[in-house]
Amino acid sequence: MKNVTWQGVYPAVTSxxxxxxxxxxxxxxxxxxxxxxxxxxxxxIGGSLGESSTITHEERIEMTQAVLGLGTTVDVITxxxxxxxxxxxxxxxxxxxxGAHGLMLLPPMMYKPTDAETVDFFRTVALNTDLPxxxxxxxxxxxxxxxxxxxxxxxxxxxxxxxxxSTRDISNVTRMRNTFGNRFKILCGVDxxxxxxxxxxxxxxxxGLVDAFPAETVAIYRLVKAGRIAEALAIHRWFLPILELxxxxxxxxxxxxxxxxxxxxxxxxxxxxxKLQGAERERVLNILKEGLANRPTLPxxxxxxxxx
Length: 308
What we know:
Blueprint: E1 8-11, H1 25-38, E2 42-45, H2 57-68, E3 75-80, H3 85-98, E4 102-105, H4 115-127, E5 133-137, H5 139-142, H6 148-152, E6 160-165, H7 171-180, E7 185-188, H8 194-199, E8 204-207, H9 214-225, H10 229-243, H11 251-261, H12 278-293
Parallel strand pairs: 1-8, 2-3, 3-4, 4-5, 5-6, 6-7, 7-8
């Protein structure tokens, strides 16, 4: 079984569709290859940006197998977002059988569980798969906070290895380090504060706008980890208006439009989503056009040595 590092840049990749709503695997893989060429470290398939609520278990597995078929060395992570413990276990086992390297696991969906129910959900799924797990802590969007006290109850499970930190509270990185040391890897899940969390000691970045701007995202990560903060900050300041497209109910449409603008994606979404229209579309296009007109020249970031 592959050792998942939970370190570096992990795009939360978009699912690609034809106009009729069917999966578009060739365009999906075109984007994945662009990510790999830019130096990303893993991909998360079927997350919120992957239109999780509209894709089936079978489609997640099809996309997972398609990426594995590239023969890439990056970590291939399948997302699980289920309301039922039984269904979550079923998908975890399908992903393991398909060859996925790891899982991202959300708390139970739809029903708002108690802390005890959430802990039991994570524990039960973890005990039913050998795959390493990244648990997703996003109380802003999902109204369920994975508290420090809850992680304390899960730290005995060796395959619960990392936390996607999306509380929007940068100090939570330090709070986790003070409590657990390096027991859990920490990956920032919010584009707009990823640089800050990396500076504070986060191990990685589950990124969104990386889907359209992979080189800039990886450059920021590698520069920060090499201590070249001023260089990373210059790229980040250029990037921030674009990164803010990630914190929106229409983040999927925003990022798919950005992928079109950079030539590595398509704009088709599954209903009930619709493509951006009218004044909002113009607003997003203007942000992207401004960014592309002033796209920074990047250093040779792939040659940067990252301290162990």
